[in-house]
């Protein structure tokens, strides 16, 4: 049974009663038809909810994977920063040792020259 082409009501007897009321009350058929269309739109939107939820779940999974990747990248960056600091300390130590070696060499030459001068070139 349909009301103006469609009946949102499952019970045909109830549809018949609405049709009779529709003849008595102007606009009732249009209202009932509008309610049927609204219910159909609501059902359509509700049926799309699982797909929307699935999309949100997949997006949440991708976000969790990205967060895990970011934590790994942060750990690698931290490790590289530590290596950089260690390298800097090693370089400073190496430069200090080179300067000390140079100073020791100069002092050794100076002592040799002063000994040579003190002994009169002998």
Structure overview:
The protein is mainly α and 122 residues long. The chain has one domain (12-118). 85% of the residues lie in helices and 0% in strands. The chain has 2 helices and no strands. It is rod-shaped, with a radius of gyration of 46 Å. The relative contact order is 0.05. The mean pLDDT is 82.
Q: Tally of extended strands?
A: 0
Strand content: under 5%
Q: Report the average pLDDT across residues.
A: 82
Structural class: mainly alpha
Order of helices and strands: HH
What is the CA-based Rg, rounded?
A: 46 Å
Largest beta-sheet characterization: none
Q: How many DSSP H or I helices?
A: 2
Low-confidence stretches: none
Q: What is the end-to-end distance?
A: 133 Å
Determine the fraction of residues in helical runs and give it as a percent range: over 70%
The dominant shape is rod-shaped
- Structural domains: how many: 1
List the helices and strands and how they pair.
Layout: H1 12-24, H2 28-118
Key traits:
single chain; mainly alpha; 122 residues
Q: Would you kindly provide a brief summary of this structure?
A:
The chain is mostly helical. It has helices at 12-24, 28-118.
